[in-house]
Structure formats: C-alpha cells, structure tokens
Protein 1
Amino acid sequence: MSPSNVTAIFQEEARAAEPFWSVVAEVLGDGFLRIGSGSGVRRAMLATHVPPVLPGQHVLVMPGAKDMPALVVAAYPPEGQMGGLPLSYEPGSGTLEIRGVKIKLVGQREVVVECGDASFVVSEDGAVQTRGDRILSAAMETNRIEGGSIEFN
C-alpha cells in the first residue's frame, strides 16, 4: 500500500470519527506509541486514564483530529494477564490495590500518604516526615538510626 493510500485511509477514518480496534506495535515513551490497524501503522497517545500498554496489546482508538495523533481510550489486559491486572478497586470497601515488583510514586514537590491523623510526607528538599500517635520501628536484625545529629525529645 502506498503512503498516499495509507494517508487517504487515515483521513477517511478521522472523518468518520468512529472508534476502532487496533494493536500496539511499539511503545515510544512519554505516553506515545505506534499502533497498527488494517490501514497501516500510525502514531497515537494514551488517554490519561489508560494504564501503560505493551506491544501486541489490543486497544480501542479514537481517530485524531487533523494533525493530531489518534487517542487510545481503552485497552484489553495483556495476553496471559486477564484478571491479574496490577491495579484493582473494590467499591464496596473503597479499597484501591496496586501490585507490582516495584511501585514508584513520583511527586514534583511532595508525596503524601495519609490515613486519619497519621501521615508520611517526602518533600523535594529531601525532608521525610512521619507523624502519628504511635510509631513503631522494629527489625529482626539491626535497626540503625543515623544522622548529622540525633535528638530525642
């Protein structure tokens, strides 16, 4: 298929503005990827609510407006991961569960974990604050406290 034919098909799909199913061909980073459909391969971006995707994963795509990339609005779980998604929410209990080998939270100014009056705050200046009515620090081996100076009460 010539590039002009592919462009014509993409433009026709965009005019129709109908969502279509596609497959992730390549993950480019920064939320962008290449997707393949019956009409060729094109650049797309993930909608903010769609978790990261993998090559070969099936996705639902809205065609992009003129000069805009297509938008991935939904994704099937990767092959072999049905029911084993790393993120789940239980509305009855209000529980959000995140599973992974490594979980990384990144905040530009702070990362705050809060429950009732207890909190854990990590700030961009390197400060770490742990607050609570009772704080337990326990270790099976060495429990070490290090610092330029250490103050107790």
Note: The chain has a mean pLDDT of 82.
Protein 2
Amino acid sequence: MELNGLYRVVYISHSVITDEKLTDELIDIEKKASTYNKHRAISGCLIYCNHMFIQTLEGAKTDVLSLVDIIQHDKRHSGLTLIFSEYIQGRNYNNWSQMKVIFDETLLSKLSQSLEEVASLPLNTLSPEKVQEIMLYVSRFQDS
C-alpha cells in the first residue's frame, strides 16, 4: 500500500491521572483530540478502564503515526505500547472523531477483569493471547 493508505493502530498505556482530576482530564483530551483529529481525518476510540487507556486510531498512516508520537509524550499516561498496527480496507470508527462514552457495563466489566491481570506489568511484556483478548473487547466498541 502507499505511504498514506488507511492505517489503524491500537495502543495500551497506564494512566497516571488521579481520580480527582480524571473527569477534567478526559474532557481536555476529548476537546483537543476532536479538533486535531477532525483536521486530519483521524477517527478512533479512546477507552479508559481500570486506570488504563486503550486507544484505536485510524487514518492516513503518516497522520496516525505522527499522532502516536505526540501521544507518547503526553504526561497523563506511561508505558504506551502498540499492540496492533496495519493497513486496513475500511474504518471501524467512521462516526467517531475521537471518544464515545461506553455504557455497556457488562463489556466494560469483562475488559476491566482482563486488564486487572496486566495492570502492574510492563505493557511490552503482554502475551500474544492477552493482546488478542484485549483486541476482541476493543472490536466490540466499533460502529455497528
């Protein structure tokens, strides 16, 4: 594929945001991301669960990778680890400029249980099976 073909990345990271500041910080992330992503045709989903972020980003490869580089330096999280990256045929998050509030408590509960097992580990040591499990949960948040 060409350099700017449609590309998807998924990363996971540990949040360092205190519970007291969480709501304000998530609002700040949403505002900045919506503006930045809209101008670059980047779509995706940010999930906050169990003091961890899981984010999917889709768009032109150079734009997505530039954004990942910016995100990597954000002091609101640590240990950013890419768990998926490849060219894609189409977007899973067409209608999401960035974030969507997830109300499926059963799904979030299962994801939370899965993340509890890795919360204290260096994220670059995740087993392929654990990555696959996380990706399965993330895929359930995509556009219907």
Note: Strands lie at 6-15, 43-49, 52-60, 77-87.
Protein 3
Amino acid sequence: MPIPKVKALSIEIGMQNSGLASSLATTSFPDLAMATVPGAIFSVWHNISGAMLSAIYRKWGVKDNEDKDKDNEELERSESDE
C-alpha cells in the first residue's frame, strides 16, 4: 500500500474508534453516565498521539523526498556526462 494511504488510514481509523467508543457507551448504557468516560479519555489521548504521529509522518515524508531528489540529481549528472 502506498505510504500516503497508510498515513491517512492510520489517522482516520483512530478518529473513528474514539468517536465510536463514546457513541456506543451512550447508546448501550444510557443510565450509566460514567460509561462514556473511557471514550472521552481516548479522544483526548487520540488528539495528543495524533499530533505526535503527524510529526513522525512529516519527517518520514521529508526523508523519502530528499532521497528521491538526490537520486534524480545523480541520474541527471550521469546522463549529462554521457
């Protein structure tokens, strides 16, 4: 799977899971207000970990692009030498 899709899916799945947890707790346990707390905590954690993950993903993409740029420069040099 292409790297951009991997990045997008990992973030999207986490966002869906945090919302789903709170929604299911509210629907399944309407008399227990505390049932939504784990989902709410997970939502906060998702915001924190998502920010960290996006920083990692940003660096991951930069390195790949730098490597491609170097490869392209080397290819252009070798072609111009011929």
Note: The chain has a mean pLDDT of 79.
Protein 4
Amino acid sequence: MLRRIEPDARPLADPRKSAVAARRGGPLARSLAIAVMACAGLIGCGGGETVSISAPSTEEARRAITEALDAWKEGTTAELERREPPLRFYDSDRDQGVKLLDFAIKEPATEAGSVVEVPVTLTFQKGRSGRRSHDAVYQVTLQPDVVVLRSDP
C-alpha cells in the first residue's frame, strides 16, 4: 500500500535571514577575518622599521630547484623539509605521484619582487614506457625558508 507524503507547510529558512547570514559569514569566516586583521596589525606595527626581503641570486635559485627536482627524481622529497635550512617544495604533479624522469633548467631566469622565476622543462613517465615533456616555471625565495613553488604560465 502506498502512502502519500504531505509536504511540510513550514518554510525551510527565512530568505531574508539567509541573505544576511551569507553576507556576514559564519563563525569560521569571522575567525578567519579576525586572524587576518591580527596578522596585519602585527605586520603593520613594526615601529617604523621596514623589513626588506631580497630575491635570491639566479645561481641560488637554480641550486634550490636542482636540489628539489633531484629529490623528486630519487623519491626523497620528504627529506627536504628535514634539512637545515628546510626546503619547502610544492608541485602538483609530484603531489599526485607523477614520476619525474628528467629536467632541464632553461634561460632566462627573471626576478619578480622577492622571488626568482626559473623556466624548466620537465620530462615525466607516461604509461609503462612512454615519456612526455612539459614546460614549467618555478618560483624560488630564500626567506624565511627556502621555497620552490611550481607556477605554470
């Protein structure tokens, strides 16, 4: 025997309250906003002293990228963060388990603020015996830690 289900006569939510809540954000949004403002306040209250972070030299950037990519090829990237100073390496293909077979650092490296951008050709394993190449750009900074971040165009 089939029963008919009657719809609930009550509205699910007051649309005016929902719009206001969406604009104000929830507790997480408020906590995030407070944390951002606190950080901005700490940064802005340096007593007039400015901290300048300079970009690494092209050679330092190349050395950091070579170290990171060699570790990826050898499967030892976890050790990079344990070294002194730590090297933080961010690459989405590496994070997804893609196998790096080879790389070639290209010219020219360019300075962009406190980072150096270095073009690199990466060669990945494709299937069991295939290869594919991809042109990438890595950004490198040395302060406060050594960071190598893939930033494809």
Note: The CA atoms of residues 67 and 151 lie 17 Å apart.
